[in-house]
From TrEMBL:
Residues 465-514 are annotated as: Disordered. Its cofactor is [4Fe-4S] cluster. GO terms for molecular function: 4 iron, 4 sulfur cluster binding; DNA binding; metal ion binding. CDD domains: PriL_PriS_Eukaryotic. It comes from the Eukaryota. GO terms for cellular component: alpha DNA polymerase:primase complex. Belongs to the eukaryotic-type primase large subunit family. It comes from Nannochloropsis gaditana. This is DNA primase large subunit.
């Protein structure tokens, strides 16, 4: 068994720790009966959510192999240690799983997301066990398969030996090797339960059965875990009305999927203070598509509806625009179509409100991607939301084309969006418009938070030009003909489309759904 510890030089390394593997791994067939405080309820769930989101983010960044495992091991150690199998570790593991199961059972999208990342976490933990521990776990979990007799193993020795084994386990013979047939336990499993191995020609078949060495059982056990969890999610969905009658936990459960677990950008600045005069250029160069659309339409129509004002206003706040500047910015735009008096009465209050200066005096934080993607989509005349989620193919293509994204990259982003990988599409947008960023800056949070996208872009231009902000960077070359030279209040519509995006996006056929 292995856990990650820090070596002298600061690099993670694997060491063996005695633990109870079967206590640490579960198919989660039975919900735990335990008393728990409301505080624990939330903390446990958020810690597990952090792990699942980290898995997503590591994968989005293309991380795999040892690098992925070591990073994930570090995150697990920080959020929810699972090393020794203590009662407390097992309790937290079980409870947090079932809280998230109920929080992620509501919609098909949420169920798919949870299933995918829980299965990946399960696989990761299963792969850490050695062959004996896996066999023990299977026995205790009721995953009983026929053990192939010694006589049959000897009879089939040549065939079994011929199947190459690819192991990814650090410290357990990584790479391709052959099985020590006489020293390995084989299981006879109906081939329909071993389709993953069959598809990759990684198992010997005879008479409708797959002969699976104990160390290849991972994909079969993970498949069982997936199907059992999939059923469990549907059962949880059936129990939802009952859960929601409990006023203590209903709000937590209902909003769990929208909880952001990364940096929240409250009261933070991107670095240097932003100059309002730079916003047109920054919208083209450094903002993610969701905010670019809002900025452009605000400039064009001199107004935004409620959700758009909130989404963009909080983004600007997180990007470093202070309250006085924010009021000045919105007032300058809105008073092109209304009097200052009307602006002050109807809009200035809400700006002061989300800066925590009115009403409940709560300091509101910018929306993260989950909140935007899972939140209400834009209706007619609205421009909030995430274009990768809420725009149809034709309008998304048009939008990206105007943002200067080339045809091949556009196709890839649209494909990702159609596959419901909205955040991956957004990351792709960042990569194509910030060539070489990975070697210059940290891209943590890009695709998870609009402000992380913006902060990473600002850092990129600062690194690249040694100055940062407007003074150092030039807009995305393909966007240079856009509004970068327009001052506040001037029409920032894209010259390539005289009517601006608002005339073509969000109206008529193919507009974002209400
Ligand atoms: Fe904005 Fe996030 Fe959508 Fe990117 S993925 S466009 S940052 S909401």
């Amino acid at each position: 068994m292995q856990t990650t510890t820090r070596a002298i030089h600061g690099e993670p390394t694997y060491t063996r720790v005695k633990r109870e593997p079967t206590r640490l791994l579960s198919l989660y067939n039975t919900a735990p009966q335990a008393e728990i405080t409301l505080e624990e309820f939330e903390l446990y769930a958020l810690d597990r959510l952090q792990i699942l989101r980290s898995i997503e983010s590591l994968r989005l960044r293309g991380m795999k192999g040892d690098e992925f495992r070591m990073k994930l091991e570090e995150i697990i150690s920080a959020c929810m240690p699972m090393t020794l199998g203590t009662a407390e570790e097992v309790r937290k593991d079980q409870i947090s799983h079932f809280i998230l199961r109920i929080a992620y059972c509501k919609t098909e999208d949420l169920r798919r997301w949870f299933l995918k990342h829980e299965s990946e976490l399960f696989r990761f933990r299963l792969e850490r066990l050695d062959s004996n521990e896996r066999a023990k776990f299977m026995e205790q979990s009721g995953l009983a398969y026929d053990v192939v007799s010694k006589e049959d193993v000897l009879r089939l020795k040549a065939q079994l030996q011929a199947v190459p084994i690819f192991s990814q386990q650090p410290g357990y013979g990584q790479g391709i090797h052959t099985v020590e047939v006489t020293r390995t336990q084989f299981f006879r499993i109906p081939f329909t339960q071993a389709l993953d191995l069959v598809a990759h020609r990684q198992v010997f078949l005879e008479g409708g059965f797959a002969y699976v060495p104990v160390e290849r059982l991972v994909s079969i056990i993970v498949a069982r875990f997936r199907s059992s969890l999939s059923r469990g999610l549907l059962e949880a969905f059936g129990a939802m009305p009952y859960v929601l009658t409990d006023g203590r936990i209903a709000p937590l459960v209902s909003n769990m999927a929208k909880q952001y677990t990364g940096k929240d950008f409250s009261g933070t600045k991107t670095g240097d203070s932003l100059d309002l005069n730079d916003l047109d250029m920054l919208a083209d160069r450094s903002m993610p598509m969701c905010m670019r659309v809002l900025h452009k339409n605000l400039r064009l129509e001199h107004k935004l509806k409620h959700w758009g004002r909130l989404q963009y206003g909080l983004f600007l706040k997180g990007a470093g625009i202070g309250m006085e500047d924010a009021i000045q910015f919105w007032e300058k735009e809105f008073t092109k179509i209304m009097t200052t008096d009307v602006f002050n009465k109807q809009y200035a209050y809400s700006i002061r409100h989300y800066f925590g200066k009115e009403g409940k005096r709560k300091d509101y934080t910018p929306f993260n991607c989950s909140k935007i993607i899972l939140g209400p989509g834009p209706g007619h005349g609205e421009f909030h939301g995430c274009p990768f989620r809420h725009y149809d193919e034709a309008n998304l293509n048009k939008l990206l084309e105007r943002a200067g994204v080339g045809a091949m990259d556009r196709d890839e982003m649209i494909k990702l969006s159609k596959g419901q990988h909205y955040q991956l599409a957004c990351m792709k947008h960042f990569e194509t418009t910030h060539k070489g960023a990975e070697s210059l800056i940290s891209m943590d949070g890009v695709g998870n938070h609009p402000n992380a996208f913006f902060a990473a872009s600002m850092a990129f231009y600062k690194e690249k030009n040694g100055e940062g902000g407007r003074r150092g960077g030039s807009p995305n070359p393909s966007s240079q003909t856009s509004a970068s030279s327009a001052g506040p209040g001037e029409d920032a519509g894209d010259p390539a489309s005289p009517h601006g995006e608002s005339m073509e996006i969000g109206t008529g056929e193919g507009s974002p759904p209400a």
